[in-house]
Write a structure and sequence with these properties.
- The chain is rod-shaped and about 75 Å long.
- It is mainly α.
- 3% of the residues are buried.
- The chain has helices at 5-21, 23-29, 39-62, 65-82, 90-95, 98-121, and strands spanning 35-37, 85-87.
- α3 packs antiparallel against α4 (65-82).
- It has 6 helices and 2 strands, in the order ααβααβαα.
- The two termini are 35 Å apart.
Length: 123
């Protein structure tokens, strides 16, 4: 069921507020609009992982522990590099930081008013 326009606006305001209040938590949840998947990272990472698998197999075939461990490290580094997200336009996100503060305060005050009304309505 799609969200209405009003619900989408509220969700966007909540996301912006979360990024302002606790950016570390917001980044750990992966909902940062300034970060996205990079095709270049994925391609290079997959190629490195395949090279690591090849080195690992060569190390096992030659019974050389050093080559096998090196292959495993290269494979792990390739997977890590492939799963990294790249940031885009970090300066643009910081430039618009003044206006959301004003919206946030009015948004928060309206939420506080709603909360107070609900609390008064309960016996």
């Amino acid at each position: 069921m799609p969200l209405s326009e009003h619900e989408q606006k509220l969700l966007e305001q909540l996301e912006k507020q979360l990024h302002e209040d606790d950016p570390k938590f917001a980044n750990s949840m992966g909902s940062d609009p300034g970060r996205s998947w990079s095709t270049r990272h994925v391609v290079i990472g997959v190629l490195c992982a395949l090279a690591g698998v090849f080195l690992l197999l060569v190390g096992v075939t030659l019974q050389n522990i050093f080559v096998g461990v090196l292959g495993f490290v290269v494979m792990g580094a390739g997977v890590y590099f492939a799963t990294m997200k790249s940031s885009r336009g970090g300066a643009g996100a910081k430039a618009g930081g003044t206006k959301p503060g004003k919206q946030r305060s009015s948004f928060m005050s309206s939420l506080e008013e709603r909360w107070d009304e609900r609390r008064r309505g309960e016996p």
